[in-house]
Amino acid sequence: MSTTPALDPAHTALLVLDCQPAVLAVLPDDAAREALLGRIERAVAHVRAAGGTVAHVRVAFTEADWDAVPDTNKSFGPLARHRAMHHQDPSTGFHERLAPRGDDIVVRKTRYGAMSTTDLDRQLRERGITTLVVAGTSTAGAVLSTVLDAADRDYLLHVLSDAVADPDPEVHDLLLRRVLPSRARLVDTAGLPELLRATDTPDDRERTPQG
């Protein structure tokens, strides 16, 4: 049995980071990419079934966004100069297997972290979200930046260890073993359904038949 405390779905959100064709294409192994998408699909289904929130985050740029990126930005300066990742390009949209639905949160960012250039933090807090489960790509980019930022904002954090990926396997393994555990609990998708059980309220206990 897992020693990780159960998650209350009413206060939990699954963050699906940068699951876009243009970003997923940098993963070198097609089979691994398909397996990753399958695990994230299952995680999304588990969270929805439990009544939790799903938040979809993508990276993409308007003309104004490109113009605002300084040349000193080592990661995003080249994207701006080459006018890459336009927000209307189909390759920057959400992967069709992970398309947002109904009441999901959807945000577009222009840096690595999910919160620094979006209103994601505000939207989560308006829904009473205090716990985040993180999945997506890449471990050394969006995942790491989001976890570090969210930890500083005092969210309780979980990372789905088998539902994050990076083009560099050594960096991915190092982050999972040595860096991310200082900010987040590592869980896997197989264990997620067990964790997604809301804490009983007094009213729930009163309605539970006693044997």
3D structure, described in words:
- The chain starts with 11 loop residues before the first strand and ends with a helix.
- It has a six-stranded parallel sheet with strand order 3-2-1-4-5-6, with helices on both faces.
- The protein has nine helices and six strands, in the order βααβααβαβαβαβαα.
- Strand 5 (156-165), helix 7 (169-179) and strand 6 form a beta-alpha-beta unit.
- Helix content is 37%, strand content 18%.
What is the fold's blueprint, element by element?
Layout: E1 12-17, H1 21-24, H2 30-50, E2 53-59, H3 63-68, H4 77-81, E3 105-109, H5 120-126, E4 131-137, H6 139-152, E5 156-165, H7 169-179, E6 185-187, H8 192-195, H9 202-207
Largest sheet: 6 strands, parallel
| Derived structural class | alpha/beta
Helix content: 25-40%
Distance between the termini: 24 Å
Q: Give the low-confidence spans.
A: 200-211
Order of helices and strands: EHHEHHEHEHEHEHH
Shape: globular
Strand order of the largest sheet: 3-2-1-4-5-6
